[in-house]
Design brief:
alpha/beta, TIM Barrel, 8-stranded parallel beta sheet, 12 helices, globular
Length: 255
């Protein structure tokens, strides 16, 4: 179950297991993306209007196509994390993890005792209790927990954060990182570049998988980050792929 673990053990090191983002409630689009080769899809509950009911349906669609359903929760909140996991999410992405204390809170919310303090209740993830034993034995311990590192405070605390157990990996947030440095959107700023370099150095030293979401699809950038040993790489989202397709079609039509 397992995107990052699968990548780490993949014998074909050149093969990129790419993921993407879902930002609208469009079951048909989610079905299409998960059936055409994306290895994992992240349902965005932070910057979208997707509801919990809709999230649960999208998780089922992704899972039915043998892709891995991730959910980026709205915030580092145990209720949000619990709802996503109970709905069947196999991976949780927690935004704005800046301190060791915040990282511990996310770990506690994600895993059952003794690894954490996740609340126990019958829900869709274990077929409303009918597959509870199987879920505990085969799935609950394999949930992938990803921290978003997207502020200079998080970079400064990264060494200690990555010393914690039960972290699957991290994903860099360059735009929020630039904002925290006072250079919003200036990704080529030396301040941003140096912070990213520090993120990479610490992550590689701690042997913690790195990740990034390249919003505008760009094969060269994807290959660049893959060569830099990033393991969790996402590109685009449902609306960007639709928008880019429309723009390309209209451009060809008018040329």
């Amino acid at each position: 179950m397992p995107e990052i673990n699968k990548i780490k053990d993949d014998k074909n090191k050149k093969k990129i297991k790419i993921g993407s983002w879902i930002i609208t409630y469009n079951p048909a689009a989610t079905h299409l993306m998960s059936s055409l080769g994306f290895k994992w899809l992240c349902i965005d509950m932070e910057h979208s209007t997707i509801t919990f009911d809709q999230m649960e349906i999208l998780i089922s669609i992704i899972e039915s196509n043998d892709a891995v359903p991730f959910v980026r929760v709205g915030s580092n909140d145990k209720l949000y994390i619990k709802k996503a996991l109970d709905a069947g999410a196999q991976g949780i992405i927690v935004p704005m993890v800046n301190t060791v204390e915040e990282a511990k809170e996310a770990i506690d919310a994600t895993y059952y005792y003794p690894k954490g303090k996740r609340g126990v209740g019958w829900a869709k993830a274990q077929n409303f209790g009918y597959n509870f034993d199987q879920y505990i034995k085969n799935k609950s311990d394999k949930i992938q927990l990803i921290f978003q590192i997207e502020s200079i405070e998080a970079i400064q605390n990264l060494n200690k954060i990555l010393d914690l157990k039960n972290i699957t990996g991290t994903i860099l947030g360059p735009y929020d990182l630039s904002a925290s440095l006072g250079v919003l959107g200036q990704l080529e700023s030396p301040l941003v570049k140096n912070a990213i370099k520090k993120y990479e150095e610490i992550s590689l030293k701690k042997k913690t998988p790195m990740g990034i979401h390249i919003t505008q699809p760009n094969p060269n950038k994807i290959k660049l980050f893959h060569n830099k040993r990033y393991k969790l790489i996402a590109s685009g989202n449902d609306m960007i792929f639709l928008g880019n397709s429309c723009k390309d079609f209209l451009k060809k039509l008018s040329s």
